[in-house]
Amino acid sequence: MKKVIFLILPFLGGCAALHHVQLGNLDNRAKVNLRPIELKVSEVGVDLNDVKLIAKIAVGKEESKNFRELTEIIQLFQMGPHTGAGVYSLEFLKTVQDTLRSQCNNGYITGIYSIRETRKYPVISGEIIKVKAYCATVKGT
Amino acid sequence: MKKDLYSWILVLTSILGLNACTSLATVSLTTIPAQRNSVVKAEASKTIFLGFNFDNDFVNDMENQLKRQCPNGIISGILTKDEVIDYFLFIVWQHRVTATGYCTKANGTADQAPRLKTDRNPAQESDSGAEQ
Amino acid sequence: MKTSVLRLATATLLLTSCTHSVHLVNFSDDIPLSKKSSARPVQSKAEQFVVLGFATDTNYVNQAYQNLQSQCPQGQIGGIATKYYTDHGFFSWTNVIAMEGFCYN
Questions:
Q1: What is the pLDDT of residues A118-137, one digit of tens each?
Q2: Nearest to B28 among A22, A26, A27 (CB)
Q3: C51 part of contact set with chain A, CB < 8 Å
Q4: B122: exposed, middle or buried (C-beta count within 10 Å: 0-12, 13-18, 19+)?
Q5: Which end of chain A is more exposed for a tag (fewer CB within 10 A), N or C?
Q6: Chain C residues near residue A89 by CB distance under 8 angstroms
Q7: Contact assessment for residue C101 and residue C77, using Cβ atoms and an 8 Å cutoff
Q8: Chain A residues touching residue C86 (CB < 8 angstroms)
Q9: Residue B121 forms part of a structural domain
Q10: What is the mean pLDDT of residues A39-67?
């Protein structure tokens, strides 16, 4: 029963963590039209500490000991500063700049609001970069 | 044998402690101007013991430091670094924020000098957020 | 059989286990609309390899900053995206700063 409860509880809600936020200059003059634009890129991160915890609850003692040792060996290969969980690919980062600019070809981008956050679930997490901005165009042009 | 091992551990720990391990917490960069002759710098730091830190007011003076070095000018191309320097096993560490930028005089020759025309086209200004 | 499966799984996981951690992505102000057609992209990247946390400075950031400026000596650089991430490894890691912007006159 305890095991069932422990397994169900994490699924009842995901935790969100904010790591970094930045707000840029905003051109809010009357002459300027502001059209909101948004971009969200993310990658799945894996938290091996959750793997160890769930193994401890879900499987037997001997099996969970092997699992724990295995995850600890893997963690030795993942040392370094962590913001959220580690991701296996950085492809999602490459097109952030270009994708944002492509949404504003006939104006300039202002009021850039960028957030680095993590949406945490059991074992996996969403490592998210969210950018909100405005595409500014001069009225009458 | 054990005594040798303990003394080696002590030596290594001391080396680690004296090494002042530095890590970067955050970094940001603003638009870099064409005129880069005049560099302005500001720095603020705070030593923290055992995590006892009750405010972050140490960064408040940085803006004034930059302003003093660039009176009647525009400060841009600011690279801001927030570093954490660990002196001893995170018992004592220092938080250091540095800002380095360029001062451009508002004399009409620099690219970022604000124009004095009243009916300007905002889309043609070099600094899109500039206000007269 | 069980041990060999475990060993195979370990080997596979170890080979694919190097992870990365994205710390932040920052953006500076955009370039003016009138300069967009003539602006050219510039970028710089600097790294710092750290073993067991032994790192005495963060000069790689200044290096990336100077490198970016050297690609646009006479112009302004705007629309700068600054990315800071870490590539994890075995008892070591590599801190990376990547800066991408647009140079215009």
A1: 998 888 899 999 999 999 99
A2: A22
A3: no
A4: buried
A5: N
A6: 20
A7: yes
A8: 80-82
A9: no
A10: 81
Please check whether residue B34 lies inside any domain of the structure. yes
E strands present in chain B: 21-29, 39-49, 73-88, 92-105
Note whether C41 contacts B: Cβ–Cβ < 8 A: no
B115 lies in a domain?
no
Q: Which has the closest alpha carbon to C54: B28, B12, B34?
A: B12
Chain A residues in contact with C79 (beta carbon < 8 A)? 97, 101, 109
A23, A26, A31: best to mutate for the B interface, most B CBs within 10 A? A31
Q: Is the pTM of this model over 0.80?
A: yes
pLDDT at A49: 83
Please identify which residue in the block is written with the tokens 């800071």: C84
Q: Is C39 exposed, middle or buried (0-12, 13-18, 19+ CB in 10 A)?
A: buried
In the predicted model, what is the mean pLDDT of chain A?
85
Q: Identify whether the C-beta of residue A51 lies closer than 8 Å to the C-beta of residue C9.
A: no
Q: Which of A80, A96, A116 sits opposite C88 (nearest CB)?
A: A80
Please give the residue range of the domain that contains residue B68: 20-109
How is residue A79 annotated by DSSP?
A: B
Rg over CA atoms, chain B: 22
B124 to chain A, any CB pair closer than 8 A? The answer is no
